Structure formats: C-alpha cells, structure tokens
Amino acid sequence: MGDIDYQTLQLEYRPVPPGAASHWPVVVVGAGPVGMTMALDLSRHGHRVLVLDDDHTLSIGSRAICFAKRTLDIWDRLGVGERMVRKGISWNVGRVFFRDQEVWEFNLLPEAGHRRPAFINLQQYYCEGYLYEQCEADPNIELRWRNRVVEVRQDADRASLTVDTPDGPYSLTTDWLIACDGARSPVRKMLGLEAHGQIFRDRFLIADVKLEADFPQERWFWFDPPFHPNQSVLLHSQPDNVWRIDFQLGWDADPAEEVKPEKVMPRIRALLGKDVDVKLEWVSVYTFACERMDRFRHNRVIFAGDAAHRVSPFGARGANSGIQDVDNLAWKLDLVLRQQAPDALLDTYCEERQLAADENILNSTRSTDFITPKSEMSLLFRNTVLRLAKRHDFARRLVNSGRLSLPTFYTESSLNTPDSDAFSVALPLGAVAPDGPVTQNGHTIWWLSKLGGEFVVALFCSERLPDAACLQQLANPDFHSLPVRCILVVSPELEGDIEPGVEYVVDTDALLSSRYDVRAGACYLIRPDQHIVARWRDVDPARIRSALLRATRTQ
C-alpha cells in the first residue's frame, strides 16, 4: 500500500445503523496512537471494541515523532511495527554541542542482537494512519468518527455515555470506558477530575522544514549555539526529507508572532545557511508542562496516555509512555472481561503506571531544569558540566538534553514473586524481557516474537531438559486455569533430544542465555506484556502456579 496524504485525509462519518448494539464490553474515547493501540491489543485478545473520536482527521503536523524500541516491540506484537520501521528514520546516536563545539556523542543501543533500533523518527500522522488502517481492517473494532462524548455517568456495573453526532445524540453503555482523549481530556472534566503538576515558564518553537540535506540520521542538540545564543536547539531527521527543529524562545516570546514565517525563517537560515532551499511544513509554539491525575482508575473509567499524565517533549516520554500504559492495561482487562481475574487486578494498572508517570515526570523535570536554567547558579553549573563533558566521563553522565524514553521496570510491583534464587542485578525482576535472535525450524527469528499476549513459562535448558512429567503438567490447561504457554530455550546440543509436540527455540549463539543469566539453567515466568514477574533456577510447577495466581490477583 503506497503512502497517502494522511494530513488531509477526511475519515468517513457513518451514521449509527438502526438496531446497532447499545452496549459494548469496552469503549475507547480518543482515536490517537494510544487509543487505537488499546483497541488493537484488546482485539488480539478476542474482544469487541468501540472507538469514539470527535474529529474526522488524523494528526496535523508531525507532533510526536520519536518512537522508542519498547514501543516498536509492542507494535510488532500487534502487527504494525514493521510498517512503522520501514517508513521511519532509525537512529541510535545522539550528539551534544556547547556553543560551537561538540562535547559528547552517545549510542543508545551500543550492542548488536536487537531486532529494533533505539528509536525511529516518524511523523505522528503516519503513525496514526497506519494504526487507523490496521483498526479499520479488524472485524472486532468499530471506529466512529465525529462522535463526541458529551456526558458520562457510571454506577458499580457499567458506564453510560451520551454521544453527539451530525445526526443527533444517542446513548450507549459499556462495562469499561478507556479515556485516551488527550491532555485536555473532556472525559476527565465530565467526571469533575483534574490533573495536577507544574507549568514551566519557557516557550519553544517547533518547525518542520522540508529540505535536501546530508546530515546523518542522528539527534543533535545545541546549548547556547552561535546561531541562537543563550538558548537551545534540537535537530531531528524525519521521513520524506522533513527535519524537526526545536528552538528555545524564552517565556517572554509572543506565540502569535513567533509562528509567522518572517520570524521563523531567519532562525532556520541561521542554523542551516542562507542559501539552503527550505520549505516550511508546520510550525507551533508550546510550553512545558509536567502533570498527572492522582489516580488513573475511577470505577468503570480508566485513563491512559496524555489524559492521565503529561510531560515535556524532550525525552520522547509522552507518546511512548502512553503506548506502554495500554500495553500494561490490555492484558489485565482481558482477564477481567473473561472473569479469569478479579477487577482488583485493574488497580495494579494504577500502581504500576502511576509509578511510571512519576518516573517520567521526574526525568522530564530534570531535563527541563538543565535545558532552561532559571538562576545564575544553575546556568553556571550547566555550562561547567558541558565544558567538562568533552574530556571527562563523570560530567557526561550529568549532561541532560532530555533523558530519552526507556521502559519502566516494575521492580516493586505487588504482582511479582520475589526472587528466592540469585540472579544478575543487570536484569532485575519486573524488567522487560530482553530480546535476542533464536532459531526455530532452522530459521532465525526474534525471541520476543514468540511472546504473545499470554503468560509464558520460559525454561532455559543449557545442559539438560526437564523431565517429561514436569512438561506434561505445565502443558495441562487445567493446572493453570489461565492461558499459559511453556517454551523451552535449548542449546544446540539438546535439540535432538526434545520430544515431539514440545514448543522450543534454539539459543544458537547463547546470546539469550547471557542476557537472562542462565548459568546451568533458569525458569522465567513472563507476563503478557513481556515483563518478568517471577524466576527460579529450577523448574517447580507448584511454585509457577503460585506465581501465576499472584500475578493475576487470584489468590
């Protein structure tokens, strides 16, 4: 399918047909990247989902452009990752400049053996367009454009909505309402809820420009450059020869004036050169804000993405965190909808993702304080760090041009079964399961592609296989009372000893064994969102079952 102009695409409004269902298991409000990812994830679990959006267009301008490796892994599981990566600009390297000198180069993915890069840059309208097409082709998902939620009520068992359309209002009910309706969240306001936090007294100009340039596919950040003195600038490459430039303006800048071409173009030409042929694609002025709701769940209404929390854009923590919100929520809601777990499991979404929001807000606030110092002492500290960073490693660790998005590790989650055996501290309990190449039927595949939307018991067998009775017990659905798969990860020497019908992969280069600290053997229990929830040095079905019950709040 060729690329279309997603910025001008008019999405079709369809009247609600007579006799249409008035009750849905799940309704998602907001058809942005977070809302559509939520719908795709729930559909993969077999649930019908209604998505309501008050608009009928996709994103205007590039907006969110940096999508992290963890987000790409999630989209791979949902069948859209490869398309995003093919279109996007992949990058791992960033450079930091102070005035007219480079002071530091960093690589966010220095080791080989990963399917995806540290980041891709992809305009949000492409991201939304690809997700929209995936949702539109999914029979479990119904997208309704120009359907504006105007009232939300709820009781103990369901939420009731009034939805306004060009043909007039209608009503529906849902077991669960997922609010992914952005930083200004109308659903949040309807329920009388608020987000609390900090507005930073600074303004930044975003300019998307189209030009032919031979800059490398890297992230470049300048502090106090000669072409924009006393301020900062960020440069990123995007597909279609589009470049994102962020200019710090200061709090006194007039947003209405700064977006005018006669104000924007001199800044761009000061950076790129007077003779460069540049075309402005999109311009916006924004103010940093870091805030979140006190609680993300309110009975039958659950908030995700910017509706629940908001951070400044440096660090690419906004959209990536929102995608990880719904990655956390979808499998829990699936089990609750199937009555395989109590709805108390959904409270752990709040526990884990509120922690993630706090982590992102802390990192974003620190980045903002470093990028935009508000006192002479803070400015002196920052500039001294930047001067030292050119020669000293300790100073490089203090440079903060936006701590880039990483997945939150749920190390203290109440769903974890604490370690009873010793494992490497490099891979803590609650971490995202590391990826790596493995072999299956003679073909190289990626380990995370084997971990779908269910619990996985991964048995790492470097010296011997578990006995047949143990494997038979682990494979018995009645033993778990939950969807669980058992996968053996074996050394090449053991492949010939595996009985027919046992699912396995071969750790040909022992890279996975190294990343999972296997030593002589290990057993990992991995959640449907690919976080490690329990592990042991030996296989014990009783302990595995106990850990599953804990991980689903069923004990």
CATH architecture tag of the domain at 23-82 and 118-194 and 292-363: 3-Layer(bba) Sandwich
Rg from C-alpha positions? 25 Å
Task: Let me know the average pLDDT.
Answer: 92
Which fold name is given in CATH as the topology of the domain at 23-82 and 118-194 and 292-363?
A: FAD/NAD(P)-binding domain
Largest sheet: 8 strands, mixed
**Which stretches of 5+ consecutive residues score pLDDT under 50?**
none
Q: What is the CATH homology-level superfamily of the domain at 23-82 and 118-194 and 292-363?
A: FAD/NAD(P)-binding domain
Number of alpha- plus pi-helical segments: 15
- Tell me the strand percentage band: 25-35%
Summarize the structure.
It is built from 15 helices and 26 strands. The chain has 555 residues and is α/β, with parallel strands linked by helices.
Salient structural properties:
alpha/beta; 26 strands; 8-stranded mixed β-sheet; about 550 residues; 15 helices; single chain
Describe the protein in words.
By secondary structure, this protein is an alpha/beta fold. Among the domains are: 23-82 and 118-194 and 292-363, 3-Layer(bba) Sandwich (FAD/NAD(P)-binding domain), CATH 3.50.50.60; 437-551, 3-Layer(aba) Sandwich (Glutaredoxin), CATH 3.40.30.10. Helices cover 28% and strands 28% of the residues. It has 15 helices and 26 strands. Strands 1, 2, 8, 9, 10, 11, 17 and 18 form an 8-stranded mixed beta sheet that branches. Helix 1 packs parallel to helix 4, helix 1 (33-44) runs parallel beside helix 8 and helix 2 (69-77) packs across helix 3 (81-87). The radius of gyration is 25 Å and the shape is globular. The protein starts with 22 loop residues before the first strand and ends with a helix. The relative contact order is 0.12.
